[in-house]
């Protein structure tokens, strides 16, 4: 192995170490934000927490991007001419995914959606704001500096595998079940990561991410009523859950295939 090859190999591991350090710093930022907002009004405490975490995470991205000797544009955080359209496409696709999953579950019976009576705009707007902030924070953490720097130093495929694994682990540590963390966050991580790599930006994955979470909440698929309440016939909970999981995998698979087809001419690097 030549000196040049040895230095290149060392550089890869330095990048990986910086990405791990970056992720650790984002966790510290999240904890710090939680402490800073713990006395906020209960109705908006989650939104303030995520707002604080998102802003601080953005500055971390800038810091580590400079450390990696990259530019903000290299990690996809600078909006471009196509950003608005890509976000809109992603948002529409994300809502369609959530609706498709619900329709599949409904078609098998023993499950219904009941419109929540007298829901207010504030009761819809606050969850939407929360999912905007959650999506923004997670895209900054997992699909900007970390994913792109690994894709430059290693390969886009390995970068996607590494960041999807970390994405799943964060969801597991946050209290999600193994099933939700590995299958749910795992397939979501592949979709959002692939969208970020193909478009060289965050607009498309951010639109997908926000709309998917908000769509699931709206349809009562987040474990609590949204705009609709999901009602499962007694005795069929396990069956409906399995159908919901299968529908989830189906729509995620379609979305991943869609990104690959629509952006087939775009390279991952």
Task: Characterize the structure shown.
This protein is mostly helical. The chain has one domain. Helix content is 73%, strand content 4%. Strands 1-2 form a two-stranded antiparallel ribbon. It starts with a helix and ends in a 7-residue tail after the last helix.
Features:
about 270 residues, two-stranded antiparallel sheet, 9 helices, globular
| SSE pattern | HHHEHHHHHEH
Structure annotation, total helices = 9
General shape: globular
Strand-residue fraction?
A: under 5%
Structural class by SSE content: mainly alpha
Distance between the termini: 26 Å
**Uncertain spans:** 3-7
Biggest β-sheet strands, sense, barrel? 2 strands, antiparallel
> How many domains, in number, for the residues?
1
Main sheet strand line-up: 1-2
Protein name: CAAX prenyl protease 2/Lysostaphin resistance protein A-like domain-containing protein
Keywords: Membrane, Transmembrane, Transmembrane helix
Organism: Flagellimonas flava
InterPro entries: Rce1/LyrA-like_dom (IPR003675)
């Amino acid at each position: 192995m030549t000196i040049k090859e040895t230095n290149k190999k060392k550089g890869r591991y330095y990048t990986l170490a910086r990405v791990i350090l970056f992720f650790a710093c984002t966790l510290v930022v999240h904890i710090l934000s939680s402490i800073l907002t713990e006395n906020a009004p209960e109705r908006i405490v989650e939104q303030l927490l995520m707002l604080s975490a998102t802003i601080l995470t953005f500055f971390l991205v800038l810091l580590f991007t400079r450390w990696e000797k990259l530019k903000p544009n290299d990690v996809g955080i600078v909006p471009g001419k196509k950003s608005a359209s890509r976000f809109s496409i992603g948002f529409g696709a994300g809502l369609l995914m959530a609706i498709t999953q619900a329709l599949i579950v409904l078609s098998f019976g023993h499950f219904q959606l009941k419109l929540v009576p007298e829901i207010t705009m504030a009761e819809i707007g606050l969850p939407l704001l929360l999912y905007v902030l959650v999506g923004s924070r997670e895209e900054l953490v997992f699909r900007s500096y970390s994913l792109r720097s690994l894709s430059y130093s290693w390969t886009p495929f390995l970068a996607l595998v590494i960041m999807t694994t970390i994405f799943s682990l964060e969801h597991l540590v946050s209290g999600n079940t193994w099933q939700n963390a590995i299958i749910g966050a795992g397939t979501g991580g592949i979709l959002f990561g692939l969208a970020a790599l193909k478009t060289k930006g965050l607009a498309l994955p951010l639109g997908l991410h926000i709309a998917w979470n908000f769509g699931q909440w709206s349809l009562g698929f987040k474990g609590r009523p949204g705009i609709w309440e999901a009602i499962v016939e007694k005795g069929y909970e396990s069956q409906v859950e399995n159908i919901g999981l299968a529908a989830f995998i189906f729509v995620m698979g379609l979305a991943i295939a869609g990104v690959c087809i629509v952006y087939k001419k775009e390279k991952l690097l």
